[in-house]
Every structure is written in structure tokens, then in C-alpha cells.
Write a structure and sequence with these properties.
With 154 residues, this protein is mostly helical. It is built from 6 helices and no strands. The two termini are 20 Å apart.
């Protein structure tokens, strides 16, 4: 059923963009990808702050607490379990994975990279792990662009 809807959507796009120049098509696709990545970034930030708020809202943040030692370990364990048992694939983060896909894999990233790096990183960062939010956004944006290109160009 979903494949049929995608086929109908693809045919609709093909008919609507039939008279467009290559430049117009690329600008429209860049706009759509940027919009989707912006929404994904908002979701990632909301997830990140929601986890952090849920863990720290019930005790005084400016005081010493044993939870600040325990939370990062729990976050790393949860992220590892998510990657191992839900994704079941390596999710190397950051620019190096994107550059590798560009140079060796014809710019193709797997579809799970659209969400898996966001969830694993939000869990790790939200629980106090020492990673930054930039790499998952780079990976997510690249995966969304790659998968949209794979869908439209085959």
C-alpha cells in the first residue's frame, strides 16, 4: 500500500516538474530538503531538552548529586542497546561518515540514518554524555538529502 502511494506521489512530481529547468528543480529540491532538515533539527532539540528536563526537573540542579555520575552511564547503555537491537547497524557519527559515503558509496546513506543518529545522540547527550549535537544533525541532514535523491533519481 505504501509503495503504491509513493509511486503515485512520484508520478505526480514528475508531471508537475515536467517543464522545469534543471536549475529550478535543484533549487526546489534544496528548499524541500532544507525544510525537512530544519524540522528534524527542531525534533532533535526538543527530544534532547525533553530528556534533560525529565531527568533533572525533580531535584536541585545547582547542588551536588550522585545522579550526575550515574546518568551518563545509563544514557550510553540505552544508546548502545538502541543501536544494537533496534537499528542493527553501525551508526558512525559525523562528517567522516558523510565524506566516506560521498567518496566511496556514491553519496548513498542508509534510510535509518535519518532517525537513528538523532535518537541515539539525544539519549547520550540528554543523559549528560560528552558529545555534541552538531554531528547528528550533519548525519541526519545528509541522510535525508541522500534518501530523497535516491527516491527521485533511482
Amino acid at each position: 500500500m505504501a509503495a503504491r502511494k509513493l509511486e503515485i506521489f512520484y508520478r505526480y512530481l514528475t508531471l508537475r516538474t515536467n517543464g522545469w529547468s534543471e536549475r529550478q528543480l535543484m533549487l526546489m529540491l534544496a528548499f524541500v530538503v532544507g525544510l525537512i532538515v530544519g524540522i528534524a533539527t527542531l525534533i532533535f532539540e526538543g527530544l534532547l531538552h525533553g530528556i534533560k528536563y525529565g531527568l533533572t526537573s525533580w531535584f536541585a540542579v545547582d547542588s551536588y548529586s550522585l545522579f550526575y555520575l550515574i546518568y551518563p552511564v545509563i544514557g550510553i547503555i540505552l544508546a548502545t542497546l538502541f543501536v544494537r537491537y533496534v537499528v542493527r547497524d553501525k551508526i558512525n557519527e559525523g562528517v567522516t561518515r558523510v565524506l566516506y559515503a560521498i567518496s566511496r558509496n556514491r553519496s548513498r546513506l542508509k534510510a535509518h540514518n535519518c532517525y537513528s543518529s538523532m535518537i541515539a545522540s539525544a539519549t547520550t547527550i540528554g543523559f549528560g554524555g560528552s558529545v555534541g549535537p552538531e554531528a547528528p544533525i550533519v548525519m541526519t541532514g545528509s541522510a535525508i538529502g541522500s534518501n530523497m535523491g535516491q527516491f527521485l533519481c533511482g
